[in-house]
UniProtKB/TrEMBL annotation:
This is SWIM-type zinc finger 7 associated protein 1. GO terms for cellular component: Shu complex. It comes from Propithecus coquereli (Coquerel's sifaka). It comes from the Eukaryota. The gene is SWSAP1. InterPro entries: P-loop_NTPase (IPR027417). GO terms for molecular function: single-stranded DNA binding. Residues 227-250 are annotated as: Disordered.
Length: 250
């Protein structure tokens, strides 16, 4: 699923022009970042990108309704794309289980992308290791089921966003280690020095063995506008590796 995020980030920064979209969703992706790091904005941008590909709708799962639609995500808020994003708000882990287990009853065309925002809010209910592993496996099984419904050449991608903490306890570390076994592709959002009126992040995308690691700068300006530029390592620049180990990033 790194391909969808890469297209979002590359299109916004003007990199890799003219590349064709691919129906291959790739391995499931884990989107990781600290509170307020823009995970929801990137997740919503991925939803808009997938909704404009002319395939199935997008399922966006989150515990609470979005207070406002993220702006400046690199893709215009086309009403036709917005209509293809179907929001669901399971309020608890058990309701999330129920929703995923009833995926086979979902009417209409199968989705091309399944998104879950705010996994940490469900983890706050303190599920046991077995229940947590079941949730991760159920997410993968649901995406696989939708891929089967899409038929030959179709593939339903999966992206899950999880909030990380600078000082994670043993339980958080266990959850992350378990998730990384299920989600080989990962995207890390790492805070960088920001000005008084902007918030800048370094985005590190690792596609799970399907390509090289790619990085960008993402800047959120007043009003929520998001701008993206390619990140280039410069020899001798001590800041080039800044934050590379933040939140457990390799």
């Amino acid at each position: 699923m790194a391909e969808t995020l890469r297209r979002v980030l590359s299109a916004s920064s003007g990199a890799w022009p003219g590349e064709e979209n691919t129906a291959e969703a790739g391995p499931p992706l884990l989107l990781l970042g600290a509170p307020g790091s823009g995970k929801t904005a990137l997740l919503f941008a991925a939803a808009l990108e997938a909704a404009g590909e002319g395939r199935g709708p997008v399922f966006f799962l989150t515990r609470k309704p979005l207070q406002s639609l993220p702006c400046g995500t690199g893709t215009a808020l086309d009403p036709m794309r917005l209509q293809k994003i179907r929001f669901q708000y399971p309020p608890s882990t058990q309701e999330l289980f129920r929703l995923l287990c009833s995926a086979h009853e979902t009417p209409g065309p199968a989705p091309s992308l399944l998104l879950l925002d705010g996994l940490e809010e469900y983890l706050a209910e303190d599920p046991g290791p077995e229940e947590f592993a079941y949730l991760a496996a159920l997410l993968l099984d649901t995406a696989a089921y939708f891929s089967h419904r899409l038929g030959p050449g179709g593939d339903c991608g999966l992206i899950v966003a999880l909030q990380t903490q600078e000082e994670a306890d043993s339980g958080d570390a266990l959850h992350l280690a378990l998730l990384q076994r299920y989600f080989p592709a990962q995207c890390w959002l790492q805070p960088d020095a920001s000005g008084p009126e902007e918030h800048r992040l370094r985005v590190c995308l690792e596609p799970g063995g399907l390509g090289p690691r790619t990085e960008w700068w993402v800047t959120f300006r007043p009003g929520g506008e998001m701008t993206i530029t390619p990140w280039h390592t410069q020899a001798g620049d001590p800041s080039s590796d800044k934050g590379s180990s933040s939140g457990g990033h390799p």
